[in-house]
Amino acid sequence: MDRAGLLCIGHRGAMGHAPENTLSSFRKALELGVQCVEGDVYYVDGRLMVIHDDRLERTTNGSGYLLDHDFDTLRSLNAGEGERIPTLQEVFETVDLKAGVNIELKGANTVRPVAEFIAARRESGWRDDLILVSSFNHGELETIRGMDQHVKLGLLIAGPPADAAASAVALGAYSIHLSLKNIDREFIVHAHSCHLKVFVFTVNEPEDIQRVGALGADGVFTNYPERVLQHQKGRGSIGWV
Ligand code: G3P
Ligand code: MG
């Protein structure tokens, strides 16, 4: 295991404690002391909004497809405990350079607005080691790489990693993000030999946190950041380091 322990990435903020992908969830993750947070991003009615599903029912009091609604309607919805669906801008203002942010691209047409958003954030102090863009859609990562040579990229892999390391190297990616059910030590060693980080989702149970650390992964996405943080030994720095 990394001597400093696993990087703690708050999944959808700290969704074990607050409604997922809301400002209250991101505030909770920061309060617990995460090094990074992750949020899911759609491009809706000309805005980048932070929500996981392409439909509204599970996480809000609305119904139907997210993309069928205008911004004002979406903002009138309750996303849990009175929270609204936040914009990506609001999430960045809330995090306020106090943690790294993983923007996970969901849905269509996110690449250009996200590339423009990141370019604007650089002007306000967001260094490249504080932002990471990931997607299960590796074509979108290629497109964003074409627009931005410096942004950190993470390949999300739904199944076994197979040749993911080669794809990540070709893309100039920083990391590979694997499901807990698909990690193995051999792949992690190989990824590290390619200078890639391996982050694992979603790791909540103490025995899984121990196992993932023992296998040599670099970090975990977790709904319960405090459970990961208590295994760290002096990891102080925030962001993707
Ligand atoms: O980015 C890690 C994890 O969030 C990917 O899966 O479905 O939770 O967005 P999902
Ligand atoms: Mg996600």
Task: From the structure above, extract its key features.
241 residues; alpha/beta; TIM Barrel; eight-stranded parallel beta barrel; 32% helix; binds SN-glycerol-3-phosphate; binds magnesium ion
The total of beta strands comes to 9
Give the distinct bound molecules.
Answer: SN-glycerol-3-phosphate, magnesium ion
Give the averaged pLDDT, no decimals: 96
Number of helices: 9
- CATH homologous superfamily annotation: Phosphatidylinositol (PI) phosphodiesterase
Do you know the CATH architecture?
A: Alpha-Beta Barrel
CATH fold annotation: TIM Barrel
Descriptive account of the structure:
By secondary structure, the protein is α/β, with parallel strands linked by helices. The chain has a single domain (7-41, 97-231), classed as Phosphatidylinositol (PI) phosphodiesterase (TIM Barrel), CATH 3.20.20.190. Helix content is 32%, strand content 20%. The relative contact order is 0.17. The model has no long low-confidence stretch (mean pLDDT 96). SN-glycerol-3-phosphate binds at residues 11, 38, 40, 52, 104, 134, 156, 177, 201, 221.
Produce the secondary structure layout.
Blueprint: E1 7-11, H1 23-32, E2 36-44, E3 47-50, H2 71-75, H3 88-95, E4 100-105, H4 111-122, E5 131-135, H5 138-147, E6 152-157, H6 164-171, E7 175-179, H7 185-193, E8 197-201, H8 206-214, E9 219-222, H9 225-229
Parallel strand pairs: 1-2, 1-9, 2-4, 4-5, 5-6, 6-7, 7-8, 8-9
Antiparallel strand pairs: 2-3
Helix pairs in contact: 1-3, 4-5
Bound molecules: SN-glycerol-3-phosphate (G3P) and magnesium ion (MG).
